[in-house]
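User: Could you check the structure of this?
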Amino acid sequence: MNRRKFLSFSALAGAGAVVAPQAAMAAVKSQPAEGNAKMPIATRVLGRTGMEIPILSMGVMRADNPAVVRAAYNAGITHFDTAHGYQNGKNEEMLGTFFKDKDRSTFTLATKGKADPRSANFEPEYESLLNTSLRRLQMDYVDIFYFHAADDVETLMNPRLLAMLKKFKDDGKARHIGFSTHAHKPAQIDAAIATGIFEVCLISYNFKLKILPELDAAIQRGVEAGMGFVAMKTMVGGAEDAEGSKRINGASCLRWVWQNPNITTAIPGFTSFDLLDNCLEAAHAPSLHPADAKYLAGLQNRETLYCQHCGNCVSQCVRHLPIPTMMRAYMYNFGYKHPSLSKETLMELAVTGNECAGCRACTVHCPSGFKVAEKIAAITPIVNVPSYYLT
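Assistant: Sure, the predicted structure tokens are below.
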């Protein structure tokens, strides 16, 4: 769904307009390609966890078809990543049903949960969150539990958070502890090293990042301290353009990521057999080809859907809106074709859909060239679309 169509749909939401379902947006092959299942995938060790996992894992966030999970598992993918909030818990439930009769030694699983350690009821609420995830997953433990979407160093180093994460590990509910982050990555990596608690970092990592020298240096410091790194957002929003109209070559993006030996695995969010095949194509031939390098170089200076999360926009905005997260919601809808996740992300921010009202001209000038006001106007109306119209 392009931006123009979405705006026309959202404008009619009060009259019962329907946002087109995800199934109508992307073709799904009925069967995976033959021959992938027996082809080995290279493995790497995830820091001091000692976990040896394939360089290609599955980010299950958007997947709602267990047949795709089965195809990935049968193809040799053994690490699966979900979160407490994905699909309002249905994502964890799907994985629990799929894995309940599988040998626990044949796969590893990570989930994530976010809570505010400054909250009066943080400890019981956070433990309840993890217990709920385990119940959905039908498992006694997860291999990695991440503190989800850390925004700043202060939260990551909060003593109450660190104590609870340590408790989860001591109680045997999480074999290893980590954190995920989109923003302020070098600073957060250094903070995580200082705590001595975090064993894994799930980090946005792709060829478009403008802070690669600083980030790679921080990752190296983390590796030297025994931390393992998992890459997400490897495909810069899944599209070559700002409209989300042309799918990016995921194989090229993945090969670029794997050139960094400090990245143990990537978790692309494939939702169909053809997308899985594209990822497997890369995993079975992971070296960066000259054609890949040429293709990615052609996208380097082109505006895509990926926000750098540099945070410069927040200070420029007269209302100090959480623009990076709003841009992530934009990417979820127009790049991932996942409007329900977009709405969930905005609802967590208490977005009303009228954030920019009263501003005659936007004061934000994005270093990446994002037309911020236009993107906010395009995505925020989704909060007023009934959830049962969204997929």
